[in-house]
Amino acid sequence: MAKSPKISASHEPGGLIVHISGLLPSLSPAEQRVARLVVADPADAARRTITDLATAAETSEATVIRFCRSVGMDGYPQLRIRLAAEAARRVEPPDARVVGGDIPPGADLAQIIATIAFNDARAVEETAEQLDPAVCEQVVEAIGGAGRIDVYGAGASGFVASDFQQKLHRIGRTAFYFPDVHTALTSAALLGRGDVAVGISHTGTTSDVIEVLEQARSRGATTVALTNFPRSPITEVADFVLTTAARETTYRSGAMASRLAQLTVVDCLFVGVAARSRAKARKALEATAAAVQSHRVGSGRRRA
Amino acid sequence: MAKSPKISASHEPGGLIVHISGLLPSLSPAEQRVARLVVADPADAARRTITDLATAAETSEATVIRFCRSVGMDGYPQLRIRLAAEAARRVEPPDARVVGGDIPPGADLAQIIATIAFNDARAVEETAEQLDPAVCEQVVEAIGGAGRIDVYGAGASGFVASDFQQKLHRIGRTAFYFPDVHTALTSAALLGRGDVAVGISHTGTTSDVIEVLEQARSRGATTVALTNFPRSPITEVADFVLTTAARETTYRSGAMASRLAQLTVVDCLFVGVAARSRAKARKALEATAAAVQSHRVGSGRRRA
DNA sequence: CCACGGATGAAACTTACTTTCATGAGGCGT
DNA sequence: ACGCCTCATGAAAGTAAGTTTCATCCGTGG
């Protein structure tokens, strides 16, 4: 089992559960059964013996051990302890909010709002917790010193890509976003050493984005991937991998929470880059803010 | 030496560590050595194997087991797990998050990440709390029954508008977004009774958006405003006002947190509308998901 | 069709945990 | 002082848990 580029295997400070759910799709079916049990109720899993857990997951002990290794643990006892710690730290969700789940059919709007907000907020928090500052730092460095930055993304991730592009542009970095694959490929072909290409894909399997990132990399550009799944194909064409931690399973809630998580990461990178050259960034920001000032009307509250 | 054989096993309020140190004097010398190690560093003890701990306490495994029983545990594994949980709970993050504030100049990336995530998550939560389900309900009704929906927004709010448009479109609602004011005005002029216009503006002062919303209203469309400021100009041209709760002060964090808050509201409306006609929405979603399927790589699981 | 590689569980194996038991050190009554 | 009882203690036996190995099976691509 070869290891991908820069996946910080040992780094999952934000929480084991989050880490595991990110890895979930990269696990074998039998291991996935184990993973689901663990994620569903970490405290309970910590109480079980390996044989017990194996039985519950309808598999063998061997598979449970494999699962432990897959998620970066030494063995079952270590997993158990980590799970116990994790479960203890976690604040139990107050009510019957469907954690990472679907909205129940008969739900009224107040319930819907509570569920969405809860999941959204958690995705943001957990994403921040598991973000590796060291990798971020390197990405910030690369972007801050880049000659040109291309941001790629399709569908929902396209909005995020576009947002990132606009943000970078506002602080005076030369950044591009292309809604069209062909244009993006063309642009990627023109990148070179010292340039940066950022590919955003929740699933990490969007072929368009992967392709473009690959192209960029082959031209010598530094490539960065932003995905929810640390072992997805996109990570293979990235020099740096940043992950979100939206742990929803259904495509529906998925697209929602993951988008916020992605934006949070974008925000962090943005502020990081801005902080790197504070004076210049501030000046650029003020200039752009002034530019739209004439499109604002008075009488309302406004920012200073 | 009234060492009672049966110490209240079930209930040890205030934490296991406290409990252990409480009955430390009642333990035998060898057990006390074990207890002291455990109390001194629970997390470390949880990591050790029973033999290891016994050696460290200069005693035998048997004594460690006796100690476990003395403090009310079933056996060593249970103690281990409880200790891990305990240790996790007591080590509270030494939070240096700048609440609602700006990022300090000298901040390192880890700090930046924590601050952003905190503010982002709080904006989401607080927005949800103050959202009026009744108003949402009416908006959902209007959108769900609308002939056509126009979503307006400029700058950062433009992304949100665009996102909303795309979401509505995915569940089969006829929705439009226009990056260009003139086109938007044209479209607004074509709206009529039964149509819905949604204007998104963080400050509520974006004249372009207000203007377009006003136009839409004058044509008889139902108008909805999404803003952070309930008394801003945009609310004057809106039939329904939904507010976000990003309480940032600076332009920098402002644009970031407010965007997430807006998206959360969009999510709520979206799910509300989708839930309204569940079957139809689901079908539409599945169709759109299938449509992009061929653009994904790695059919099942990723990267073995 | 076969070769190959990965996934999987049965079983062998190792390590960790638990119990049993013999020893010996105090305490205490005679 | 002596014997006897009690209890702490660790050695060793015993049991259960965790880990490794390996043969089998299944799908994939030549």
From TrEMBL, chains A, B:
InterPro entries for this protein: Homeodomain-like_sf, HTH_RpiR, RpiR-like, RpiR-like_SIS, SIS_dom, SIS_dom_sf, WH-like_DNA-bd_sf
Q: Which Gene3D superfamilies match?
A: Glucose-6-phosphate isomerase like protein, domain 1, Winged helix-like DNA-binding domain superfamily/Winged helix DNA-binding domain
Domain of life from the UniProt record: Bacteria
Where does the record place the SIS domain? 139-279
* Pfam families noted in UniProt: HTH_6, SIS
Q: Which keywords label this protein?
A: DNA-binding, Transcription, Transcription regulation
Write out the GO MF terms.
carbohydrate derivative binding; DNA binding; DNA-binding transcription factor activity
Keyword Cell membrane recorded? no
Kindly give the PROSITE patterns that the UniProt entry links to this protein. Answer: HTH_RPIR, SIS
List, for all copies, the residue spans of the domain called HTH rpiR-type: 14-90
- One Gene Ontology term from the biological process aspect of the record: carbohydrate derivative metabolic process
Its protein name is RpiR family transcriptional regulator
